[in-house]
Amino acid sequence: MEGLINDEDDNNNREQRDERPRSSWAEVVSGEQDHQQQQEEEEEEEEQWQDGSYRRNSSTRPHQSDENNDDGWQTVGKKHSRQQHKIQKDGWNQYKLPPDEQQYSNEVEIGDRVEPTEDELTDLSRACEKLWDLDLNRLVPGKDYEIDCGKGKKAFHKGDMAQRSLFTWVNDDVFRKPTFGRFLSLLDNYIPHQGREEVVTSEEIQEQASFIEEISRTAPIKYVHRYLASKGIVSRSYQDFKRMMTSLWFDLYGRGGTSGSSSAFEHVFVGEIKQNNEVSGFHNWLQFYLEEAKGRVDYQGYIFPGRRGEIPDSETQILTIQFEWNGVLKSVSSTLVGVSPEFEIALYTLCFYAGEENNYIQLGPYALNIKCYHHGHKIGSVFPIADS
């Protein structure tokens, strides 16, 4: 699993921020300034991309190892939850089979709904709302999973404000969904430490191709293709589009000075640990659940929202949180919860090609900024920020 980068202004920005008295941070818990600084923290910590220099201190803590049961399930977790975490993995080997032995879901047929309207073609937020409506595999809080947000904290505060794991349980049926299962099978293909060159096996290449093929049968991906093709951004050939998607998300590039050490998929969804002991990327709820189940993630609590923001609860599907991964702190991280893998791939691909660095959108009841950074012609990083 893993690998990230920064710009020349980063050091100056960091010096200016660190010179502020600690009391100025403490003043802003319930106000606009807190929300703005929360965004700045994530942006500065995570996404300055030009020259590869990134320096920041972080605390480390030993982590628990995971246990493997003989029945194809993994269980663990150092925090209390009402139900023990379980992850069924015994069906994932089929995703490594040769192409002629792969079995895929039927194509989703929803007619004209995947055709973008003129309003959607001229308004990215409306297009993203359409994607939200087309996410037929999005989970329902309380029915498909349950989270316990614990207590809130400011980003700079130390200490664990969550007595329990973030995820109390996830329905076993979730892992039987084809796009979910194929996504999860990809997560162990990466070295977690940035700067280590990745070695991609033929089986892993097959897993990547199979994942793209599976999600390409869903409505969100079909919609994004037709949207981008209507704008002349991508080919109208769906086969060409699938090859482009494979390249966009899985092609390796250099991060932290080492070529072939990272990819958009690894950074955004899996996460990377930089040489200075800092977590970068890691914005996916399924990866969080998987790593928490193995005891590698320690959820520390949610980050206080701005003055207009709502305190998160078990129904919330956009979270700004703090956690440790493999004993390394991620002081501010944001993620969508319960959405399908195809939805996130579609949303971030759409914002990368048709949007800008800041993409202020509405997803159902949630106002968001999809922050998108380019690394040449690839995705450097992309993640949601709750626009409260």
UniProtKB/TrEMBL annotation:
User: Where does the record place the region Disordered?
Assistant: 1-113
Compositional bias, Basic and acidic residues, is annotated for: 11-22
The record's listing under PROSITE patterns reads: ENDOU
Q: Which co-factors does it depend on?
A: Mn(2+)
What SUPFAM superfamilies does the annotation carry? EndoU-like
Under Pfam families, the record lists: XendoU
Keywords from the UniProt entry: Endonuclease, Hydrolase, Lyase, Manganese, Metal-binding, Nuclease, RNA-binding
Where is composition skewed (Basic residues) in this entry? 77-86
Any single GO molecular-function term of the entry would be:
RNA binding
**Annotated ranges, domain EndoU:** 120-388
Q: Which domain of life is it from?
A: Eukaryota
Query: Where is there biased composition of kind Acidic residues?
Result: 1-10, 39-49
Q: How does it assemble?
A: Monomer.
Recorded family membership: Belongs to the ENDOU family.
What PANTHER family does the database record attribute to this sequence?
A: PLACENTAL PROTEIN 11-RELATED, URIDYLATE-SPECIFIC ENDORIBONUCLEASE
The protein's name is: Putative endoribonuclease XendoU
